Amino acid sequence: MSETDDVFDLSIEFQTLLNEAPGVLILQFIKDNWSYYRNWMNPGRSEGRGTAWETSRGRLIKSLGSIEVRCRDGSMDRLERTIFSSKENHGKMPSPAGLSVIEVPDPRDPTWRLLSHLGVAWSVTVGTLLEYLSELRSAQASLEKVSEVYSRMRCNCKAEEGLGLIRRKFDELPLIYIPSGRMGPTSAWHCGMQCVWDGGQYLRHTPSWKDYYPDLRGFFFLVVGIRKETLGTVTAELRQVTASTEIKHIASFLIAANTHLGTSQDYHTDDAEHAREEPPILTQCIFPVTSTGLNSTFVTLYSAQPRDVWFIADRHHLRQSFDRIVPLPAFSVDEVAHMPTTLRWMGLQGRLLSSQVGDVISIHGRIRLHARYTTWLRGEARFVAR
Question: Starting from the edge strand earliest in sequence, which strands make up the sheet with 300-302, in order?
């Protein structure tokens, strides 16, 4: 190869060296002859060169990046996936963010700076950590390994530029690792906007980071900007209700919505905004209704549309009286008692049996009904029946 060549590639002899020699010997060979090889490997030599030279150099660096090299923890890894450290005692320490620390003879020799031109990371930057996190998505990730990456990001993102980069990447790419468990039988990666920091155990499609990374609260709030569970979070869960959703989870969603609606003025601005809007879930079939008995496992999902006729048993005696007579949600009376604000928000108070039926009192014998006392006792019925 000539220093003036714009198109170049590895010679047959060097390709044989790549295939046969240990990685450390190849690097030592390049280091000893760096004054020659830098003409094609150092990007600082690109002045006055064309795109052909840059393309050839990129192809050359990619080939060298595939060299298998030994790391200080005893493992083998590709050169392009390693990081350099001049600290000799780094060998037994955990690799920064899981990146492999390359092992070279005499790491304090400044000539090894040439490795930075061959794809070796010279310092753990936010960009390096984001690239490594992206690679973990296609590898065997673990909660411990990902937690270490997040911890390093927290330490390395002091500059506002780093903060902005992390927020942007976490919104655009699925960089949040959630292991298998409550969210599903397999692990998954999510974008930042798909998660909350703290949410109820009933959430099925919205991961809660607090459950997996309790020690990284500051990182998620200040760096990634993850929010708490809101009314919008709960309604998003309700939109994904299907026939396979457990009834207890649907009841939990409606009760949680009741909590957020009750504090919508001072809990979170998103709650206040959602509370002022018409519920977007009224047309969806999310209410598990049965007409074959409240102890039956056969339920059908109904909507809140007028065409779907069903009622809500909000008193124990009404539930017993109208069981199997009219379609009723498969919720207990106690569960219904914890969602009154939600039912009003959805305009369902007219479906409450207590608002649709009346009592007919019949007296036998000579005893005369005390009207005023009876009226008062009726008003206390819900407390007496508990």
Answer: 300-302, 287-290, 328-329
